[in-house]
Amino acid sequence: MPSYDEKYSFLERRVDALKTNRTGDERQTDGEVFDKKTLMTIYDMMTSGFIDSIRYPISTGKEGNVFYALDEEEEPYALKIFRTSTSTFKRVTKYIEGDPRFKGVYGNRWKMIYAWVNKEFRNLQRYLEAGIPVPEPITFDKNCLLMEYIGDENGPAPQLKDVHLDDPTGMYDEVVSFIIDGWKDAHLVHGDLSEYNVLIKDGEPILIDCGQAMTNDYFNAKDLLERDIKNVNRFFKNRGAETIDMETIMEETINGKDDEEADEE
Ligand SMILES: Nc1ncnc2c1ncn2[C@@H]1O[C@H](COP(=O)(O)OP(=O)(O)OP(=O)(O)O)[C@@H](O)[C@H]1O
Ligand SMILES: [Mg+2]
Description:
Helix content is about 40%, strand content about 20%. The chain has about 260 residues and is of the alpha+beta class. β9 and β10 (about 205) form a beta hairpin. α6 (about 170-185) runs antiparallel to α7. Magnesium ion (MG) binds near residues 196, 197 and 209.
């Protein structure tokens, strides 16, 4: 069993952030995303063969960072690493406690954040199974989630907010279909749907950031649904799309005809 120092020097060769910011204290790197536990989780993902190196951060946020990672064949992945801070814990708690899939998980900060990562992984699986385009989830462990990289050799796919839309109404209809099909087929409501959490690759929208998505039987699911529709309508109205009023979309989502009803889980 390699010692911590041995593991750390193994990681130093494969994690760019550790190469550039070295001061001997692993905690200072990248705003504490790479604390000791996280480093050991990355080590495990590497020795299990999921990834071989971690390159640059695609995104740095308050609650975590998303990194560009490569496996041995130089296949790219997105590695989302959550900060195990109290602020992350505070935000995620209600979404874990309110989700029947996580009954009995409460209290402990670590446990809660690990459950959050597990939840984002499962939500991505559910969306994918329902045919909604999301990054394919590959694996997760503790506060780390490995998924399909959305982008190409020039870089990660841009967020919807940064893209010029030739056909705003066409794009709007697709994003609205994520809301409706997400509810009907994946039985989920995203809960943070906006121009920030849709990436555009080859002109097609892909839904991301699914940790907070709740099952549609959650007591607050309709409020989340309403919020998602409002956000999407506001953004697309500004872009000149022909939008549908919220009540009509709500009605279609909750009571609309459903071909999938026969093959419920
Ligand atoms: N699978 C992916 N492939 C490429 N880029 C991604 C992927 N997932 C996320 N990103 C990029 O990282 C950003 C942050 O990811 P995400 O929205 O999932 O996290 P977040 O919790 O909202 O973080 P933040 O608080 O920084 O917004 C995205 O806006 C996107 O630009
Ligand atoms: Mg986001």
